[in-house]
Amino acid sequence: MAFELIKTGTPGLDQVLKGGLRKNSCILVTGAPGTGKTLMALQFIYYGAKDYNENGIFITTEESLEVLHQSGKNLGMDIQSMVSKGKIFIVQKPIATLKGGLSSIKGLMESIKEYNIKRVALDSLIFFEYLYPRFDGNKMEFRRQVLIFMQQMRKAGVTFLVVSERSITDFDRLEYDMMDFVFEGIIMLSRIRKGSYFERVVTVAKMRGQDHSLDVYPLTIGHDGLKVLFDQTPFSLVEKEEGSGFK
Ligand SMILES: Nc1ncnc2c1ncn2[C@@H]1O[C@H](COP(=O)(O)OP(=O)(O)OP(=O)(O)O)[C@@H](O)[C@H]1O
Ligand SMILES: [Mg+2]
């Protein structure tokens, strides 16, 4: 049976995914600091609501609402207007207030029903990490909580996009994280250095049950937002390959 694909809200990324993200799946967007993870998640929610009529919730543990609205504005997104129309909800969960349990998850599930939410983005996985620290012997509990949350999202019929940080994003020496095996799809963002210049890149590491490109593509951030240049090879990689024969 063919499954339904939904648009990511990031131009070019749907072509890399050969259509888009599988509806009702759980996707991880991971990468180094400043590579565009928050913007990708924000575009997923904003354009999902604006262009595809899928209402969304953006949960942030990372940024203040002011910063989100402002960076949205700088990149062509009028988040406030979508919020006013009741199509987007931004939930701020500062880490300091997280301790004490996930009682608000119940509220989240109710909101999903009430407001006909089809997309949820969580920025970032640290949301769970603070509740269930992985490095004090509580690894399995952490994983269990994430899995329970994902199950709830699936049951509610939403497509769930989660951001996570990672320190090693050199595609040649990646170390996989336990959480990488839990999600149906992984989109990896990185930077490649070429001399004194860094280039943003993206690759789809996995997308279960779906054909997708395995190539590395350039990613740009400009006044119209985050874009994948799906018809180009990263400049930094072309040079690397050509140069390697002469060493
Ligand atoms: N208006 C803009 N024009 C060009 N580039 C921008 C603009 N706004 C943000 N950027 C770039 O986007 C980057 C931030 O992207 P984003 O916040 O999505 O990264 P991130 O991967 O979520 O980072 P972190 O891991 O720190 O949360 C900035 O470091 C900056 O380089
Ligand atoms: Mg971020």
Distance N to C terminus: 50 Å
Gyration radius, in Å: 18 Å
What order do the SSEs take from the amino end to the carboxyl end, as H and E? EHEEHEHHEHEHHEEEEEH
Question: What's the CATH first level?
Answer: Alpha Beta
Shape: globular
Number of domains: 1
- The counted number of beta strands is 11
- How does CATH name the architecture? 3-Layer(aba) Sandwich
Number of helical segments? 8
Quote the CATH topology. Answer: Rossmann fold
**What is the CATH superfamily?**
P-loop containing nucleotide triphosphate hydrolases
Average pLDDT figure: 88
Small molecules in complex: adenosine-5'-triphosphate, magnesium ion
Please report which band the strand proportion falls in: under 5%, 5-15%, 15-25%, 25-35%, 35-45% or over 45%: 25-35%
Unreliable segments (pLDDT under 50, ≥5 consecutive)? none
The biggest sheet amounts to: 9 strands, mixed
Which bin fits the share of residues in helices?
25-40%
Lateral strand order in the biggest sheet: 5-4-6-7-3-8-9-10-11
Category from helices, strands and their pairing: alpha/beta
